[in-house]
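Quick question: what would this complex look like in 3D?
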Amino acid sequence: MSAPTSGAAEPRRFAPAERYAELAALGDVELGARMLAAAPTHEGRSPERLRAWARTAIAVGTEMAGDADAAGSGAEARVAESTGGLRRDEVLLAEYRRRARGGTVVLYTDALDYARTVAEAAGWAADFPREAVRAAALDHECAHRLLHGPRGRDLRRRLDHTAAAVGRLRVRGHVVGADEIAAHAYAHRRGRMRRSPLLLTAAVAATLAHAGPPAPAAPASVPSPGGPA
Amino acid sequence: MTAFAILAVMAVGVGLMLTRRLPTAFALVLLSVAIALIAGAPLTGDEGSVTGTVLQEGAPMLASTMVAILLGSWLGTLMSETGIASTLVRKIVEFGGERPSVVAVGVFAVAIMCGSITGSAPAAMLAGVVGIPAMIAVGVPPVVAAGTVLVGIAAGLPLELINWQFLSDAIGVPVSTVQHFQLRMFPIAVVGGLAYILIEMRRRGTRHTWAVRVPAGGADGGSGPEAGGGPDAEGGHGAFTRAARRRERRGDAPWYALLTPVVPIALALGLEIPIVPSLLTGLVFALVTAVRWREMASTALRSLYRSFDVAAPPIVLFIAIGMLLAAVNLPGAVEALSPVVTAISPSSPLLFVAVFAVLVPLCLYRGPMNIFGLGAGVAGVLISGGIYPPPAVLGLMASYGQVLGVSDPTSTQTVWSAQYAGVRPERSMLSTIPYTWAVAIAGLVLTVWLYLL
Ligand SMILES: [Zn+2]
């Protein structure tokens, strides 16, 4: 476990308001494509290719949620709450640990509070109410659990990425990060949220980008949320 | 009496390195001078003097190793710049993606190749810059992701030409003897590494998160000028332009260029070509296969100059180790230390394994059995005192090398890998040490079987 920078929910500076507005103007596909662009192994891929993958992953996640709504399936994993989600170089909102004998979901309450503070700073308090952010975290990890099964194979088939081809023989490849976008879309639909959690994730990333590699936060150095930077 | 004074000075030296009051290289130089003076060496003179023998002759004693390090670092830098290493990792992730254990084993294999080309943190970066976040993204727990790269480069160590040259120079055995032992150590290290990955993956399971990471800008790219890259978090508006820039810098390398890491070892083992020409051939192969004709000369020169940054710390260390070896080999030091070391060194094969197995932790935290530090001096004493045949000392130090290469929380590759994965180096040590300790014990048994029976 890396040491949390501080116990407080706002150890970092926030991004300028224009930055949030810019993100809010983007569609889910674009947000997803940008998330993919930042994922390892996608350094050389074209934006068009990444957008197509993001679109597919969002569709799969949304369908999964529709089916889950119909089936009324609940979470089967144990849920625990913890602090320590605000780390030196990471904001960890939730985590699903899958073992042979069942899984555990851990919600990091300090990080969820932080995300909620970012949403307020961006002026999206109504889009991301506290309970909705928490539910989104649970749904996100539920999606990861589902993606371990046939849903994951479905996603892989529909992404249809060729890892290698020799003549007519093709080997279908794994797309790193597509499951992450599907999980975001799943939570979006399951929680009947007005905006996708993709936007919230992008906003949290923007605050980290703005603050740089987070210095150990001295409380005095934290400007008021949303203020000019 | 002289012996105890020398041992006391060594203990002070370990203390200085351990508490980080002094960089290891500087501490070793001071230690060399102090040992020489205590051993009664004159300040000046041709035979066995402090300035003549320890400083002047000691400094270039490991010169062959230094040249090998520079070439290995050059090849490593080139593999990073041309995208050879990252392409290897990307292919593995694409093929094995939904099975985290498969991805981890694949990155392990890449890390073995990287570890056979160059050492310590540059090797870890070569495999880990893309490999560690990719493993985490497919569900490998961060501590296992860091450990996988570390056990990989350590398993590559027995095949590393630089390491052959170093052990040959430092212990005073022919390179062929080092090969003889290391080729038998290699499968042990591979089995140990695989055991680590498969058992720890089973024990810890997989992990998926909702998380936002600050990209490790300072760690990206392995080395060189842009390594101190600015704090630009991913997922922002610059993501595509940055990706494009990176693509320019290291796009996909062609498949035949991916054979680069096996070229030097294949030449050295298959055709018995010496170390420097083997590494040079690997360099030419990488340039010809992965760099456009017009850019070849400029890429070669730029990556060579960049590799000096990478090679500087080990070269400085090896200058100091040369001096230390010269000091402990002074007649006065040998005479004083031999009886003491003979008295405490285990003589029977069984005791050899048992005692040195218990002493394994002494190679951690820059301890006295670290071959890249005071351990070189200890090895020198064990040999000059005639306590064990040189190949046995080689086996001992190579076995310890497996522990300190992976688990030592103060070694640069451990610090880099752990922090890049977001875990503390001490956690990485606790996770790997049961496995590396077992590998070391197996190495000690191998040593006894080959050289002491
Ligand atoms: Zn996720």
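Answer marked as accepted. Chain A is about 50% helix and 15% strand.
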